[in-house]
Protein 1
Amino acid sequence: MKKIIGACIVALVAFASQVLARPYSEGFYFTTSDSIKLYVRVAGQGKPCVFVHGGPGSTSNYFEKSAGSQVEQFMQMIYFDQRGSGRSESARNGDYSLARLEKDLEELRRYLGYSKWSLMGHSFAGILMTSYTLHYPQRVSSSIYINCTLNLPYSINSHISFGIQELGLTDTMYTDTSINRMERLGKVHGKLREKGVWYKLMFATPEAKVHSDSITLDIGRPFNFDYGNKVWDYAEYDQDFTSLSAKIKVPVLVIAGLKDYAVGPEHYTSFRFPNATTALYEGGHCPFQESGAWFVGTVRLFQQQQRRLL
């Protein structure tokens, strides 16, 4: 009788594992405490690591379909689209506050059953990662900052400065710092597009930008950009998080491109993580697309070093 019961329990556990594994590997929707459905996919093996996409308002797809599958060979990757982004629903009450996005992350961690996880984020994600770690320090084992901004005004100014230098702009509509920063940004971006060189903010060639955009947009459904449109109404995202980074004690890998004008090629020098490793490369904003083998090797080495220290 005991053998029969034992066999039944094993069968039930195996069945439950298959039921859970299938929607995770194929993608599913997780419902937050305020009833917003977020797209999630879990793939790979190893220590859990959640990918926090940039944009603001993009999708995890651009990383998942680039170097993601290679990273999955040694880390369990959790891909998700933030509220109002990509494949996820918009906030019905319009709440895109930093605290709410942190709560989404924390609710997802609890739902998946991880006591701790690593964070891996790109670009605008640096803000959310830093703030989340400060408020949930016991839930983060390590963090990987890929070409991240921790100071949004600084990075916006990098866009403007690059455009002025690249095009030799002298008109005060571009150079007068008393003019609203976002207004100047719009004008500079417009001029860069007019001259066909906007791609140089992030990529070595126009073809690289086209390729990156095609991956981002290839989500198989209409692209939700609500968060990307509304996040600019929240002044809290304009904080300088570089000073706050000094309070983060977990091991951190900082990856930065020396030709990344989207966040600023020297922005990483202002980070103050006390337990950081920095990896630089001669490239732009998306190392997982431009230098995939180098990127995967750098992340793998960082993970191996963390295991040895445990």
Note: DSSP finds eleven helices and eight strands in the chain.
Protein 2
Amino acid sequence: MKKQMTRDYLATARTLSEALPYLQRYDDAIVVVKFGGNAMGDDAAMDGFARDIVLLRQVGVNPVVVHGGGPMINEMLDKLGIASEFVNGKRVTDAATIEVVEMVLSGRVNKRIVQAINGQGGRAVGLSGKDSNLITCDPADPALGFVGEPTRIDPSVLQTLFADDIIPVIAPLGAGRGGQTYNINGDTAAGAIAAALQADRLLLLTDVAGVKNAEGDVVTALNAAEVEALTASGVISGGMIPKTETALKAVRNGVRACTIVDGRVPNAVLLELFTDHGAGSMIRA
């Protein structure tokens, strides 16, 4: 038993030592993390994620958390008896639905993440893209109602929070030019914010291991041309397409790299940033 404990301590010390170059590399860097998927409904996974984000801030990284909340929105719509209409597989967001979306995202989901981060010793503040004119939107598709596409990002409020060592937690909502509230896809919002901040990294946490090739193996590093070829051949398909499109847009607009990360892996954010192994598929321009 004593020998096993000694080996465990040595392994921990070795890991910390090997992380030093990465800690130096990301000192004062901006890392935008899109948080969603199964972990949002699991208290243990939520606490683990919050602990990782607090550690990032503690070692000098400026993390920004952008979250989703689709399952929670669906649950609330069902409770309220609000029927959903779909166009080409996408939910139409009418006036009644957008009120529920804002209530769930800015209220229940956002504050739960803020509370988790604060509970781990961090200092987090929740806001939405409507606050301080962070995200201005146009309608993404008139047929979908109040679903928005970011057209302007004003990250000045985020820079102010960084200066005070505060972690921003952002609900993916934006305001139209006339003040109308719009729901934004979480990945899209995270990518737009990362580009506006010229972030060092964008991490898209998801429920799959990463981008896979034709043989079904996860590809750990890709460039834009390789992503486009895999998409054209149908290897990248379904729900992975919007994620890779977000990644490509982000890296082409100034983000150094975007990684589609398996958020089911414990400490996935730390593994991706501070180890050689990584935890997903990294895409560069």
Note: The mean pLDDT is 90.
Protein 3
Amino acid sequence: MKVISYNVNGIRAALTKDFIGWLKVADPDIICIQESKAGNDQIDVAAFESAGYRSYWHSAQRKGYSGVGIASKIKPKHVEFGCGIEDYDHEGRIIRADFEGFSVISVYVPSASNIDRLGFKLSFCDDFLDYIKALEKTIPHLIIAGDFNICHEAIDIHNPEGLKNVSGFLPIEREWMTRFMNDCQLIDTFRHFNNQPDNYTWWSYRQNSRARNKGWRLDYAFATYPMKQQLLRAAILKEAFHSDHCPVLLELSDLKKTGS
């Protein structure tokens, strides 16, 4: 079982850069997408179908903004659009697909360009933590993948000292990430396999940052503790160039497939 998460920074733009060709080669069973920036009626669902995927989208009410999706080769038993909190759901932040024996969430945590938006981001984070804790009572096998807009540790950012007062690496954000992982008993699957520095998933378009690898690790694939023995591999797919982010990959064993 291969799960990929990818902030595409606009699915329509990504599709013009041979996203579907890349998807066929990467060949995940499930892909979680963030920042689709398109209404459901603007997404080329047929292109995903041509590659063998059913796709489900939760778009923002605001045009050209936010939005998440899940595309899967396996037919879900159920798809949940949003988390039931209107302030977040109208921005298209969370979508969940339930399969036989496990569920997958694609999440796009808000960024915080100003102090007012930081408050919104932190409220989202706290409510999302509570949502996951409640969900785990009925769905213990859970994969939570997406763009969290937070670097957890100093190893996850290229200049931890210089960026310590910048949103995405603020102490309060990093403390929340630790609490999220501990309270929800989550494994950061990339760090489960790789403790090396200089592994990032987002680079600014400015100052040739990607070529210089001056990046941030903002994208994660978390798995709940009961899935630990099923984890096989996690990786950052730096060769994909459809966005200012790159995808993250998680491979697992022994997940039941149904309805494929």
Note: The radius of gyration is 17 Å.
